[in-house]
Design goal:
Helix content is 36%, strand content 24%. It is an alpha+beta fold. The N terminus is likely disordered.
Length: 332
């Protein structure tokens, strides 16, 4: 392969990673549509996506479901002695309900996200984790969402995408799924198959017509049940290795207004309210800031706290250290 071919491949990879994290074409032949936009052959798009998946730069192509719109989920934390951390993390990883599991800099040093098809199944999994590991689990379910996106602008353009809505969103009861929808969620959890007609393949797995699958996915996107449909990148493999969870203790009367302001800031991928759990956990406003260098993230946090007049509020910065597990949520 010559230098021109390498340059072309790099350009295709960059566009796939950067441009199609959202607004993915929901049509019978989506990869052909991507190829048309990129002015390359459909086979080149499929080969590039398969290579990016093998390299770990993308987790899958598909749906990210909005939290608490179907099933149940929670952020959870454990305070584990350092010499037992790897062993406990391995035990937690064995639960299919756990999709993210990180070591963070704090006395609560193990943080994971658990998701299940119902609140009862979620609580049963958390109870089993406590029983298996011997350590209590701090449960921090989502109370109010200000911004959840987890897209990464690789071209340096950090402006919030115009279609991403930043506002306070309290939660109602999850949407109940019928049998067809449950089967479709199960199929979507694995991501789109990298074939010419991927939605037709999904339809055969679910046992319905391709148009039915596409219509339901479009409706879920319009209703906000699917938060984003597109290329799901793995930020660590793309150079975003300095990742911090910034938490504040904000008076309840002010937390929504401050959360909405913080959610509008560039570089803030997640922003939401979770419960305090006194006396062990005092913080109720959470946000995630991802960067390529620790000093860059620390400077951004200091600038945000000063400009948004948050310096009077107690806070903590929990940088992630070890990534024990990262995969898609399992709702079914």
């Amino acid at each position: 392969m010559n230098r021109l071919d390498n340059t072309l491949d790099e350009a295709i990879n960059f566009r796939l990673l950067n441009d199609f994290q959202r607004d993915f074409p929901l049509c019978s032949a989506p990869f052909a549509e991507l190829a048309s936009r990129l002015r390359v052959a459909e086979g080149a798009v499929l080969r590039a996506l398969e290579a990016l998946r093998r390299e770990g730069k993308i987790a899958r192509v598909g749906a990210i479901f909005a939290p608490k719109r179907i099933g149940a989920s929670t952020l959870a934390a454990m305070a584990v002695p350092a010499d037992k951390l790897a062993m406990v993390a391995a035990a937690v990883n064995r639960f299919p309900e756990v999709n993210h599991n990180y070591e963070r800099e704090h006395c609560y040093n193990l943080w994971f996200v658990a998701t299940a098809g119902s609140e009862g199944r979620l609580q049963a999994a958390l109870g089993a984790i406590e029983q298996m590991t011997g350590w209590p689990v701090l449960k921090l379910p989502l109370l109010e969402e200000y911004h959840i996106d987890l897209g990464f602008a690789l071209d340096g353009q950090n402006e919030r995408p115009s279609k991403v809505r930043v506002c306070s969103q309290p939660f109602a009861a999850p949407t109940p799924l019928d049998e067809f929808e449950r089967r479709l969620v199960m199929a979507l959890q694995e991501g789109l198959p990298l074939f010419i007609r991927p939605f037709s393949v999904l339809a055969s797995r679910v046992g319905c017509d391709e148009n039915e699958v596409l219509e339901r996915i479009r409706r879920w996107c319009a209703e906000g049940i699917i938060k984003r449909f597109g290329v799901i990148v793995r930020h660590h493999e793309l150079g975003y290795t300095a990742n911090a969870m910034l938490v504040h203790d904000i008076p309840d009367a002010s937390v929504s207004a401050i959360g909405e302001r913080l959610a509008c800031e560039s570089g803030v991928n997640l922003c939401y309210r979770r419960p305090r759990v006194p006396p062990t956990w005092r913080y109720n406003l959470f946000c995630m800031i991802h960067g390529q260098a620790r000093a860059e993230v620390e400077a951004r946090i200091a600038e945000l706290r000063a400009r948004l007049q948050l310096t009077d509020y107690a806070h903590a910065v929990l940088f992630s250290l070890t990534r024990f597990k990262q995969c898609g949520a399992r709702y079914a």
